[in-house]
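Progress narrative, Year 2. Work on catechol 1,2-dioxygenase from marine sediment metagenome advanced from sequence curation to structure prediction during this period.
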Amino acid sequence: MTVKIFDTPDVQAFVKTVAGFDKTGGNDRAKQIVHRLVGDLFKLIDDFDVTEEEYWAGVNLLNALGSQTQFGLLSPGLGFDHFLDMRQDAIDAEAKRTGGTPRTIEGPLYVAGAPEAEGFARLDDEATEGETMWLTGQVRDVNGTPIAGAKVEIWHANSQGGYSFFDPSQSEYNLRRTIYADSDGRYTARSIIPSGYGVPEGAPTDVVLKSLGRHGERPAHIHYFVSAPGHQHLTTQINLAGDPYTYDDFAFATREELVVPAERIDDPAEIAKRDLDGPFSHVVFDVELAQTDAAELQVRHARPRAKEDDQDLASQLAGTAKV
Ligand SMILES: [Fe+2]
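Result:
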C-alpha cells in the first residue's frame, strides 16, 4: 500500500509551522530554507515510501558523520564543493570575468601562516621521504603579462597521504610554503611527490560512498592559492597525470587544464644545475589570474580553517578527510 500525504492541507500547514512561519522572531532566510528543505525531505519520504527503519538508520549515519567531523569529507564526495565551483564559474561568466586558470575545490586542510620565501622555497623538511619533486611555474595575467610578486601558497600531502598539522608525525608546516613570485612572475619549489589517498575504510563517508557503488580515492594532487592585487584570488589544485585516480577523483576536483605530468629527469647536468642528489620529477604549473576591480573577490575564504592559533578546529579536523 502506498500512502501519499505530502500534498494534504494538514501536512502543508505543518511544514510551515515547523519552519516558524507563524512566529515573528527568527531569521526569514532560515525559515525559507528550512521550509524548503524539510518539505523536500517529507516529500521524499512519501515518494520513496521510506520506512521508519530506513529513516532512523539515516539519523544514526548523520550522527556518526557529525561525531567524526566527516561532513567536510562527505561534502566533496557528494559533489557539493564542485557544485559551488560550477556556480562560481557561472557567476564569473555572467559578470564577464572570463579567462584565467580554472578554480577547483580547496579541501579542508589549508593552514595559514606557512613560512614565506621569495622566488624559491624547499617545502619538505629534509627528513621527509619521497621522490624529489621540482615544481616550477609562472604567474601571468590573462594577457600573458607576468605578475611580479604574486603570492603562491602551496600545500600537499607526503608520500603516505598525510598533511602536516593534521598528521602529528610531520614537522610543523612540512610541505606548506608561501612563495612570492620573482620579478618575472616565476616561482620554484623543491619538494617530494605527494601520494593520493582515500577515505578511511569503514568511516561513515565510506559507508555512504559504498552504498552508491563508489570509492573514496583521490589522485596525487597539490593545492594552490594564488593571489595578487587587482586580480581574482585563485583556489585550485593540480592532479598529477598517470595516477589511477587522476580522472576518477571521488572529490570531483579534476579539471582537464589542471592535470599535469611529472617528468622524470635523470640528466646529471639538470640534477647538478638544481643542486640535487639524484634524479627528480619535474612538474610545471603556470597560472593565469583573471583581473578584477572588486576588492572582495581578491580573497574569498568562506570555509572555516585551521590556523596555528586555532587548535580546537585543528583537532576537530584531524582524523577527517585528507582532501
Ligand atoms: Fe588534498
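The first strand starts at residue 116 and ends at 118. The CA atoms of residues 99 and 205 lie 35 Å apart.
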